[in-house]
Amino acid sequence: MKRRDFIQIASGALAASALPAARADELRPGITLLVGFPPGGPTDGMARALAEPLRESLRSPLIVENRTGAGGRIAVTAAIRAPATGRTLLLTPGAMITIHPHLYPELPHDPLALLAPIALIGTTDLSIAVAADHPARNIDDLIRWFRQNAAVATCGTSGVGSVAHLVAAEMASKTGAAATLVHYRGALEEVTAIMEGSLKAAVVVPWIALPFQRAGKIRVLATTGPSRSSVFGDVSTMRESGIDVVAREWAGLFAPATTPPEALAAIGAAVKAALAMPPVRTSFAKHGLDPGMAMHADFGAFVRADYEHWGQIVKRAGIKVES
Predict the structure, then answer these.
(1) pLDDT score at 29
(2) CA 10 to chain centre
(3) In angstroms, how far is CA 14 from the centroid of its own chain?
(4) Could you read off the pLDDT of 308-320 as tens digits, one per residue?
(5) How high is the mean pLDDT of the chain?
(6) Which residues in 83-157 belong to E strands, given as ranges?
(7) 267: closest CA among 144, 13, 89?
(8) Phi and psi, residue 129, nearest 5°
(9) What's the CA gap between 293 and 238, in Å, rounded?
């Protein structure tokens, strides 16, 4: 090869590698739906239930990419940094957007400012559970037991900065019955620890707790929703029991903030249609999830209110975490 030809080819290759990110994304076919957690969990399950209906509605290939790490924050950062073309979406639990900014002030990005809300995808209550042989028969019994056994009282959560973490902290703040918080990597680990006896109570999602309660291994004492759970309809809410703790986990769909409005509108319409489909609703129900229907501005207002709500709780309870 002549030296002149080599220089021309090399120069062309360098120019191609220096294409602006947005242009490179436009040339890449299909949509990437980022999920910050491994396959098999509820967030991944929602993404995969929606994937096929969205492929058909948007007439585009769509892949679910599990970008795991840092408690879901890696996927959030990837979505924020992605080109705003409508080809990169993020399905994430609300904690990443409305709780973590209060707990991790060193976060490199402000997700509320740098992500465009598209749709509320699903919501679920949480439940307070103990082992089947625990003396507590209701949440009042558990609070009393915590006070009488402070040295050994422990309460599990599904991770630092999770809704379960803040529910446990708020419960302690409002009742004065503190338990040592133990943070696990997921709700299944919490339930296992309860059954083994190394954990005295836990805040867990209902779909994890349900099969173990049915098997007589654990007992659910209360749920955290504004009304009784569709999974545990015979169990009182915290508020019904006189403890003013109301919380629901939720997951939402977002895109980079400057994504064109017409792209956001098309995606939102496709999601709304998908959430009404019986197969999607059946898939959600298996995980104790209620499909969400808030879109765009309504969802944005919901996110902002949730952010303010958790900010007040973090401040009132004095919650601090080590990054």
Answers:
(1) 66
(2) 46
(3) 40
(4) 999 999 998 888 8
(5) 89
(6) 88-93, 115-124, 127-131, 154-157
(7) 89
(8) -130, 150
(9) 25
Instruction: Please give the domain boundaries of the chain with CATH numbers for all domains.
Output: 32-123+248-317 (3.40.190.150), 127-223 (3.40.190.10)
Phi, psi of 112 (to 5 degrees): -65, -35
CA distance 56 to 305: 33
Do residues 270 and 62 touch, judged by C-beta distance below 8 A?
no
DSSP symbols for 205-240? -HHHHHHHHHTTSEEEEEE-SSS--SS-TTS-BTTT
Residues 199 and 193 sit within 8 Å (Cβ to Cβ): yes
| HSE-up of residue 149 (Cα within 13 Å, Cβ side) | 15
Token duo for residue 87: 């080809």
Could you give the CA distance from residue 209 to residue 273 in angstroms, rounded to a whole number?
Answer: 30
pTM confidence score: 0.86
> In the prediction, which pLDDT does 92 show?
97
* Burial track 18-50 (b if 16+ CB lie within 10 A, e otherwise): eeeeeeebeeeeebbbbbbbeeebbbbbbbbbb
SS3 171: helix
Give how far the C-alpha of residue 185 lies from the chain's centroid of Cα atoms, to the nearest Å.
13
Spell out the residues 6+ positions from residue 36 whose beta carbon is closer than 8 angstroms to its own. Answer: 43, 66, 67, 68, 69, 71, 72, 73, 74, 75, 76, 90, 92, 96
> Is the distance from CB of 132 to CB of 66 less than 8 angstroms?
no
Give the closest residue to 201 by CA, choosing from 176, 167, 249: 167
Of 292, 284, 217, which is closest to residue 248 (Cα–Cα)? 292
Per-residue confidence band for 16, with pLDDT thresholds at 50, 70 and 90: very low
Phi/psi of residue 301, nearest 5 degrees:
-65, -40
Distance CA 273, CA 57 (A): 9
pLDDT at 323: 58
Whole-number Å distance between alpha carbons of 59 and 259:
19
**H or E element in which residue 42 lies:** helix 42-58
